[in-house]
Amino acid sequence: MRKYLTKYMLVEFSISNFLSFKTKTTLSLAATSIKEHISTNIFSTERSDLLKGAVIYGANASGKSNFIRAMSTMRYLILQSFDQSSTEELDITPFLLNTETEKSPSFFETVFIIDNIRYRYGFEADDKQFRTEWLFEASKNIEKPLFIREGDGIEVMKTFSEGKDLEERTRENALFLAVVDQFNGKTAKKIMQWFNNFITISGLSHERYKGVTFDMLENKQTSSVLLDFYKKLDLGFDEISISKKPFDAKELPTNMPESLVKQLVTDLEGAFRIDIKTIHKKYDAKDKAVGEVEFDMRSQESSGTNKLFNISGPVFDVLNDGGVLVVDELDASLHPLLTLAITKLFNSKDFNRNNAQLIFATHDTNLLYYGNYRRDQIYFVEKDQYGASDMYSLVEYKEEGKTIRKDRSFEKDYIAGRYGAIPFIGNLSNVVKWQER
Prior knowledge:
By secondary structure, the chain is of the alpha+beta class. Helix content is 28%, strand content 27%.
């Protein structure tokens, strides 16, 4: 009997009227019929084949980060919905460059799989309230609604008994799904857990993620995998030393205002300070190893090493448990070979046994050649003359009515502007003349 590992899988994500995306735009991880990297880049569910991820390219300000921000926004709204007060705003920005959309709600929808059951969940919302909300389930081929929300009304189907009598407990600025979860709805709880495993991180502000790395290094079952990964990347150190110390107010600067000190002492009560040291070999004049030297990770290692360390926790956490990892600016501060190493983990049968999926935005065109991505995994984002972003995959792109062949040089063609989604650089001669004055 064929075994399907399909827990926490993303099928597609769609948005419209959010930030620079005016019309409905979808990123799909449903594999098309093309015959590329079948044994490594796709996995099978009971009804379809799914991709292990996607890479997004585009010029600066094209909308790449906005699409990833849409994913992050949807996740945040779902997980934090029940905790908000009735007066809090939702912080949603529609497409503002058109009179038709500036006062209309934004649209978010995700199709995903939990334990071989396919769900389609979404909502429309403005800055103050959720206008619509829906949840559909397909245990086989036919999709059936579990609940549909329109304005003030919520229709709960008989097959979703866990949502009965909770309609009146749902605020305008709260999601019905989150309310059902708070009352221990079985299906709602599973869906909330799916979104909890739908991780979005920034490749620029990555300091906040090192806590996950700390936890994994403290765990004997996961630390060996991380340390082995660091060694294989040849980052220049042999070992890592981690020490955890209770917060001590005496270590605060002496010139800090007393009121701020009191506030920090209150806020950081019971907190720990974690020091990370990298262990390097020390050599004598004849290049013979004579001892070891500790370097402080933050101040003495490169920004690229710090970033790799910080995001390695979330990367391996998703690889170990399954789920979806979405990263904006994955390649920032990283050598192209390090970026390549991270992306190849997800297409590895040894490291990615739970079919985790990686979606990321990048400017690293080397991946178009060395990354071994299928054409349906490569996406491009560009803006039209009216400021609206559009996104399309390479397998969708047509040249003279024909699909791009798999033996084309994707990197060379992209840099040459053949697929669009690159910056338009005008005549720089005037800039050169100004500098020569």
